[in-house]
Amino acid sequence: MNIISKFRCISCGREYNIKDMIFRCACGDLLEVIHDFSKLKRKPGEWKRLFEENMDKVAFLRYKDLILPSLPDDKVITLDEGDTPLYKANNRLGKFFGIKRLYFKHEGMNPTLSFKDRGMVAGVSWANYFGVKDVACASTGDTSAAMAAYAAYSEKIRGIVLLPKGKISVEQLSQPISFGTTTLGLETDFDGCMQIVKELTAKHPIYLLNSMNPIRIEGQKAIGIEMIHQLDWEVPDWIVVPVGNAGNISAIGKGIREMYELGIISKKPRLAGVQSSSACPLYNSYTKGWSDLEPVKAEKTVASAIQIGNPVSFRKAVRELRYFNGVVEKADEKEIMDCKAFVERNGIPLCPNSAVAAAGALKLRNKNIIKEGESVVIVLTAHSTKFSHAVINYHTDSTNKYANLPIYIKPTLSEVEKTLNLKQ
User: What residues does 375 pair with on adjacent strands?
Assistant: First the structure.
């Protein structure tokens, strides 16, 4: 395999061999993966033809020359992730959002029901390439599920996850347990788990698979690449993404930026990142003219997967948002759950974290930042079934705008007919 990639510090520019098992620069800042695509000697049309010719391959392999070209194909650990639906909004959703050309890219349709599978096919495959025996991550739920599944499928890699005890959904907790991963519940929040996993992997030969690992970010680039491919290379005006640790918006931005610089696409979309009001340090930075990160104590939110007050990929996210003339919005608990309920009434299941992005898109449209005639893709990051408790809580409270309470009746035909207003 021809190695055409390297690590580069996003701050000081120092470069490292991509085969070094490192996650930060000596200066302390994050690394990113830089690919020398010129060595592949492809023109824009040739890139597109390559993708079209590989439609029979799993998405990661189809786009691998743009995602992680230095990884040998025979080291890839895949669960057939990708090729997730790009739903076009129906008329009711279009009217609700006030957007005529609205789409939902549903990453919750991946094998472990979240976008994290996109990063883990890259991260666990790279670990397999290295021949490591142990991989680890801190998680608010979805990262642990994905890492656990891919490690288990490899048959030779042990997964270790650190979770904030009592702060993730039962469905999310069940996943790493089911996949046989060593699951540790720590009496702290995500940021506390993150600190300990960084210390653990610095001291022991354990491969870190949080989003501070730049290889994982490369895998998540596939979301934006695939989305635009599904739109027949017509770039949307806006891509709206929920933000917690800020790795996903960084990855989507990086992938689209590379496509633009290679000439595969000729237009830049605008990026919008949306945070929960309970954990919104990126929003705070944006409203202060992209000020330096000021970590916050993340308060409890229904969007638990993005309940993060000190986002690791903050600087990467800011860079991509500025490159794409982006904006940042926030949404409160009522806005999040009302938006989730209305979207689901129209047949599209989305998690509360995804509903943050949907609520943000609605607010940006109401402020006329997003225009009625513009095309918009909202990225849905996980599936609703991972958060049944939040759904039940919402719909059993009659004061909520779109509550759909169960109706309990006697087990007779006449009672059913009466309740349904049918002629008896």
Answer: 101
- CA–CA dist 103, 101 (Å, integer): 7
Instruction: Report the C-alpha dihedral over residues 259, 261, 264, 268, rounded to 10 degrees.
Output: 70
Structure tokens at 250: 């960084």
328: part of which helix (H) or strand (E)?
strand 327-331
Q: Centre a 10 Å sphere on the Cβ of residue 320 and count the other Cβ atoms it contains.
A: 23
Residues 6+ apart with CB under 8 A from 421: none
Which residue's entry shows tokens 């009466």? 418
Q: What is the rounded distance in angstroms from the CA atom of residue 408 to the CA atom of residue 412?
A: 12
- HSE-up (13 A, CA, CB side) for residue 134: 11
Q: Model's pTM, two decimal places? A: 0.94
Ranges of residues in the chain whose predicted pLDDT is under 70: 1
Q: CA 378 to CA 358: how far, in whole Å?
A: 6
**Residue written as token pair 């799993």:** 58
> How far is it, in rounded angstroms, from Cα 104 to Cα 354?
10
pLDDT at 167: 83
First to last CA, the chain: 73
Q: How many residues does the chain have?
A: 424
CATH code of 86-113+217-395, in short, is 3.40.50.1100
Residue 164: partners with Cβ closer than 8 Å, 6 or more residues away: 140, 185, 186, 188, 189, 190, 192, 193
Residues 240, 360 contacting (CB under 8 angstroms) = yes
Q: What token pair was written down for 225? A: 């690449």
At 191 the pLDDT is 85
- Segment (H or E) for 222: helix 222-230
Q: Are 161 and 183 in contact (CB under 8 A)?
A: yes
pLDDT digit string (tens) for 165-188? 988 888 888 999 999 999 999 999
Say which amino acid occupies 420.
L
pLDDT at 98: 98
DSSP string, 27-49: TS-BEEEEE-GGGG---HHHHHH
Amino acid at 295: P
Spans of all domains in the chain: 86-113+217-395
Question: In the block, which residue shows the tokens 């395999």?
Answer: 1
CA-wise closest residue to 356 among 370, 377, 374, 337: 337
